[in-house]
Amino acid sequence: MKTTKTLLGILREKIFSPSRVQDDAAILRLAARRVRQKGLPVRILKPQDLTQAVEPSMAFAMCEGPRCLKILEQWEQAGYPVLNSPRAVANCHRWKMLSLLAGTEIPIPKFLFVDPSTQIRKEFDLDKGVWIKRWDVQSTGTRDVRFLYDGESLEKVLAELWTRGIKKAILQEHIPGTPLKFYGVRPTGWFALFPRAGVRSLADHADWKRKIRRTCEETAERLGLEIYGGDLIVTEDRYYLVDINSWPSFAPCKERAAQEIAKLIDRRYRSWQRG
Q1: 23-to-59, 163, 214 alpha-carbon distances in Å
Q2: How many angstroms separate the CA atoms of 87 and 223, rounded?
């Protein structure tokens, strides 16, 4: 039995929480409260306070910046559990995520990596629109993800990205359909799907719900995610996984998500303590 150590909850960097700083902080603090109710000691750290001087412990972390992930990776390699694993968080960077999912049975929209030397071919029907996204992190602001209809705007937005020092981008096919949100805590078996209010789609059918859930859970497993959420597009007869993220804000299901996250943390902590 190890000496009881205080668990560390690490908040997300503000730059990676565009328009969601309060929501992101709320789910981590609520999960921490539920963990404390299970009798475990918890300390919350801001990402800037996570330094090499902090004594390592088991951590549940929403941070995404390379400095914090490097420290948590060192802790994980030393035997301290980290949720989500820093490797899994890095796998959610768009280029890595798409590279890991391309060529698998996971249904994702067609995409193309581009840089300043790429000659944009007729890969997409611009009359139907195309998404342009920064290639690395999910988003740091509204300029990181754009929806465009014409080649002139496409070239302009790409040039803006290059000027900002973002030297690669992703073009992604636009799929008309119904957007859905999904959330899960994989080790506890909890999964939730949220259509927009009043919208009916094939996701209302039990068989399709099971298929969608299986796809989302398999994607999370491929990336190494335990606490996750993301976006789907559902058409009349198909569905596409558009994005998956490490530890989202769980806005429509915050209380239930916090209970499931706390359940996972409690299990992992007690298993680690038994060693």
Answers
A1: 20, 31, 27
A2: 8
Place of tokens 């908040």: 11
pLDDT tens by residue, 183-218: 999 999 999 998 754 455 555 677 888 999 999 999
pLDDT tens column, 112-131 = 888 766 666 566 677 778 88
Q: What range does the domain containing 65 cover? A: 7-84+252-274
User: The domain spanning residue 23 has which CATH number?
Assistant: 3.40.50.11950
CA torsion, ordered 26, 29, 31, 35, to nearest 10 deg: -170
Q: What is the CATH number of the domain that holds 137?
A: 3.30.1490
pLDDT at 149 over 70: yes
- As a whole number of angstroms, the distance between CA 265 and CA 12 comes to 18
Residues 134 and 169 in one domain: yes
What pLDDT shows up at residue 55?
95
Interstrand relation of 7-10 and 59-61 (parallel, antiparallel or unpaired): parallel
Average pLDDT, the chain: 88
- pLDDT value for 198: 45
Is 110 a residue whose pLDDT tops 50? yes
In a domain, 130, yes or no: yes
pTM: 0.89
